[in-house]
Each structure stands twice: as C-alpha cells, then as structure tokens.
Amino acid sequence: MSGIGLVLGGGGAKGAYQIGAWKALCEFGYNNYIDVYSGSSIGAINNFLIQTMDWKDATNIWLNYNLSKVFFADGTDLDSLVKAIRMTLFGKKAQFDSLFTRDGFVNLFNTIGLENLEGTALDTYVTVANVTEIPDEERVLKTAMDWYKGRKSGFTQYIHIKKPEADFIKDILLATSAIPIVYPPEKIGDQYYVDGAINDVLPVYPLNKRGINSIIAISCDRINYQALKRKYPYADILLIQPSRYLGNLFNGTLNFDNRKLRETYYLGYSDAKKAIRGIDIVLSSGYQRDEVLSAQHSM
C-alpha cells in the first residue's frame, strides 16, 4: 500500500508557518508515518529542511538565522524592495542587482547540510514552472506579469528527486524559489525555470497521481477546502492552513522581520494542533510503514 504524503505550499517568509505546524506534527508522531514529500518554492526548501534535521534545528534556522540575508543583499530594506518592485510593475526600470542575491541561498543550503542525505533513498517532488519556450527577450517581463496577474507561466513540472545528489538538489531548489520580478529565471542545463508556486501553489497533484490517498497539506494562505476535495475526491486530506491572514507579497511573503516570523511560526504550531485534534484517527500499535493512515478533515 501507499504511504502518507506531506505537501508544503509556497509563501516565502510565510514558510515559518509550515515549520511551526511541523513541530506539532512531530509531537503527535506524524513525522514517523510520512514517506513522500511534495513542495513548491519555500515549501520545497522546507521539505528538505525537515528531512535533514529535527524540528528543533529547523525551528532554529527559521527563528534565529538571519534569513533576510538569504533573500536580500546586505543593506537592503523592505521599503527599497517594495519601491523597486512597484516601479517594475508600472513599467519603469529598476535596478535589482543591488537588492537581491542568490549567495545567501547557497549558504543556507550548506547550513541545511544536503550532503547528509547521501546514502538515503528520497521520494520528494519539487514543483517548478518551465519557461524555456518563452523568448529570451520576453522571459523576465512575461513571467513577472503572469505572476502578478495570477496567470500560469510556461508549463508545470514536478521534478521527482529519488537520489541524494546535493548539487542538483541545490539547483532545483534555486529554481523553485525564483520568484518572478525578485529573481531572474534559473537556468539548469538548457532549461529555464521560475518559482513553482506561480503555477501550483499547493502541489497535491504528483502525490494524487502516484495513488497516495492519505495526505497532509500545509498551506501558507487560506484556500477553499471543498474545492480541494472536489479536485481530489478520492484523497483523504488533512489541510492545515492559517486561521488569520499572513499578509501580501510585501508584508508577508517578503517580510523576514524576526518578530513577524515568530508570530507566523507559533500560529502554525497552534493551528496544526487544532487541526490534528479535530480529526478522528486511531493509530494501531501494529502500524506498518506500508499501511495507509487516513486523515479525515472536516470543515
């Protein structure tokens, strides 16, 4: 039988919510039953974070690591960031090279220690938007406007990672987190990719296609659970989502203020505990990894 799948959605700084929720899942023992992972953007990064370390170390990175340096160049503040993005959206030229850097991502991945996965079998999907077919001269602006207007860009790919090849994992995590406007498309080989969340913010699809019918999904934004169930009628989905609004692009997704991160983290912890207590699950003492744990979610 298939195992239990964990789906983590996109959301930038709102990803602190997922790690708070993960703490609750660990306290209830759910971490022992998850075999397959799927994520977009920060959700994909968090999926590897929780596979390489325990929840305490993952929490330490989110609450004590200077994550603003991961996303922004030294000296960049949120106000200058907002101004540059708004200039671009209104058709004016803005210089982003001095605001954003990918070096911080590489340092973060080194901190995570992806090399520690060597020798282990992985079963993780990373969502990316493949924008290779968009002409070079149009790629940056078109993906940015598609993202801004809520349109899909290019086509969606669910990269299935089964081997712990650290360099490839780093490349694909850079690709899935390449937010349009904020970062240019990421090139891997002869293909160009941008943030997977612009096409599928909560990637249940690859797990459902695999026949994984017991799924825990953690969203960084409120979504319609009934619509999710209509899309995946045969899946038992435990949906954990924010009980209050976590903010927009500027005061949520790109806001790595430590106080904000802590509030988001503890909200995730609280919401997850409530969601878990609200479902009727009995774990048999004879549970085996190939059994299905059916997580019933009621709204």
UniProtKB/TrEMBL annotation:
It comes from Sedimentibacter hydroxybenzoicus DSM 7310. SUPFAM superfamilies: FabD/lysophospholipase-like. The keyword Hydrolase applies. GO terms for molecular function: hydrolase activity. A motif (GXSXG) lies at residues 39-43. The active site is at S41 (nucleophile), D195 (proton acceptor). InterPro entries: Acyl_Trfase/lysoPLipase, NTE, PNPLA_dom. A motif (DGA/G) lies at residues 195-197. Keywords: Hydrolase, Lipid degradation, Lipid metabolism. This is Patatin-like phospholipase family protein. Residues 6-208 form the PNPLA domain. The keyword Hydrolase applies. PANTHER family: BLR7027 PROTEIN, NEUROPATHY TARGET ESTERASE/SWISS CHEESE D.MELANOGASTER. A motif (GXGXXG) lies at residues 10-15.
